[in-house]
Amino acid sequence: MAQTGQEFNVDDKKLHEIVHEADNVVPRPTPKEFFEKQPHKSLQNFSDYEKLYRESIENPDKFFGEKAHEFLSWDHDFHKVQWGSFKDGEIAWFLGGKLNASYNCVDRFAFATPDKPAVIFEADDESESRILTFADLLREVSKVAGLLQSWGVKKGDIVAIYLPMTPEAIIAMLACVRLGAVHSCIFAGFSAGSIKERIIDADCKVVITCDEGKRGGRVTHSKEILNSALKECPDVEKVLVYKRTGNPEVEMVEGRDFWWQEEADQFPGYIPPVSVDSEDPLFILYTSGSTGAPKGVVHCTAGYLLGAALTTRYVFDLQPEDILFTAGDVGWITGHTYALYGPLSLGVPTIVFEGTPAYPDMGRFWKIIEKYKATHFYVAPTALRMLKKSGEAEIAKYDLSSLRTLGSVGEPIASEIWKWYDEKIGHKCCHIADTYWQTESGSHLIAPLAGAVPTKPGAATLPFFGIDAVIIDPTTGKVREGNDVEGVLGVRSPWPSMARTVYHCHQRFLNAYLRPYPGFYFTGDGAGRDHDGYYWIRGRVDDVVNVSGHRLSTGEIESVLLENKKVSESAVVGISDDLTGQAVIAAVQLKEPELITDDESLLALRKKLRLHVRKVIGPFAAPKTIIIVDDLPKTRSGKIIRRIIRKICSGEGDSIGDTSTMANPEVVAKLEAEVEQQFGVKN
Ligand code: WTA
Prior knowledge:
The chain is an alpha/beta fold. It has three domains: 20-100 and 282-540, ANL, N-terminal domain (Rossmann fold), CATH 3.40.50.12780; 101-274, ANL, N-terminal domain (Rossmann fold); 552-679, GMP Synthetase, Chain A, domain 3 (2-Layer Sandwich). Helices cover 33% and strands 22% of the residues. The two termini are 40 Å apart. The structure holds 5'-O-[(S)-ethoxy(hydroxy)phosphoryl]adenosine. 5'-O-[(S)-ethoxy(hydroxy)phosphoryl]adenosine (WTA) is lined by residues 287, 332-334, 409-412, 434-439, 460, 523-525, 537, 539-540, 546, 551. The site of 5'-O-[(S)-ethoxy(hydroxy)phosphoryl]adenosine (WTA) has 23 residues, from helix 12, strand 20, strand 24 and strand 25.
């Protein structure tokens, strides 16, 4: 995965387009009108936020030092709050401290409140739902940790977890952490190619999975997919398989694969947690960047855990008596931080939902909220768009009055969806928290503190404690001070939960985040700060697309398309889509176009390419449309101009502008004709 050169390249024109479309002239609601809803339970009012925010920026050592003592249990106290800088490229927090994240999320509550629900499991098939108390969780985590230990797993080893959204995913993650081992979760929707790549990159010897999963009334073939990935992972020595469906046809390899239920029960219900250093890695999570190969983002124990706990408490205003329903997957960062580490580190029950919002009907989320009296609900706008379309009949059937805070994550939430969420789900009695953050940030970067920071539909509002957000002019690299400015979003100084590196490739970390604008962390997103100082996230300015909240690299999809021998060049772009936020469109050029001309062969080729992407990366990455062209738009130096493809596919061919610097301006008309034929877009 060696990486050379600059990873990031601001597409200035793209930023300009995004900014142009933006509308941020919304007045801030008066605090009185706002605070009458429900006040924040930990803060008095907006000036409390302002005061604490100022303290966190002016004296981060004092602020975070105190919070680290208040929120986390330490085996050994730290002697220095933070060290390093963006200029050095090295960052560390809570030096000298020792702790264990599983102790912090399980033991301390299992001792104090053993019978309190910790993981509320809502199964795809409702009748299989169950609740694990903190005492249950401690027992199950210990048993699996004991088993892993007997297999030789120890501090610093990386264990791959390929499990759907079930309590076992949480147990497996915490079992690794209990031993000081590092988990690397692989999203259950990934196919064999992506699994293999991640297992090999992190040199995992042990993998945890299940026989099959259940989702939306269908069975997913976890073990079968993993088996095919493992054919090319000779270093994997042991696989732990949770029997979820019990299908006898699932293939187990003797000596390598073991059943969870049979093995774990032989181990004691308590094993002591292993104390690790603050900066010891807690987990790796792969994410897409500008360039092809996914990056193994590394998060460290103390800083990450503190960020998770603090944002969950202050942004969501999550209190011990609450119940959080994060409808995200543990295969992504939202599931890590807000289905596991955030709520459990505060001793708050987390609802783990195995299914989909549409099964058995569009009322599933609302039914879950009513059933468990969830106080907090956290979801991506893509699900809200789908549920809004399906009408209000299903919502009206359920009592949603337990809700206090409604969160949104993963992509910009259009103001119309924000308002629908506020009115139809929150009945105007809940706080809406649009939370902006990333895999790399570990926890919320910009988000309102529910009940303390007034909101505006569509704005992520103001930065969280310790986040010194800046808007940078992408052309000059200078910070744009004051209000009413647009640019790319950066952060001026390190915060505890930020990623420390990219696994075994620190250069990639520097290239992607710290070198584009020296002295700042670069988020990859365009943003504006309005007249009130509120932040509006405009979307990625690089080659990352966001489909239904899944972060994808266009480069990664392009290289998979190139694996087909018939393809000579490929260009993948993201265009707006009503349902999925963005959709993947691929334009491919063939090596011998004269050999494939009739409609039937073209259709077959498109199908083959789409299937190949599904197989290698995962179903969610498959291009919605594939355009086959004789030639792709290029600069004179031979670089593909993706902006032109994006414009044409979005029906904005009229605004392509000057094509005189192109090497082949004649392709524009051809591309337009092809696009029109393919999906009826007329420019
Ligand atoms: C986008 C997901 C607008 C953004 C937590 C970011 C958002 C990328 C928001 C990270 C939001 C996330 N408003 N855009 N509230 N939240 N994004 O790593 O482009 O899967 O850089 O983390 O999602 O995606 P990731």
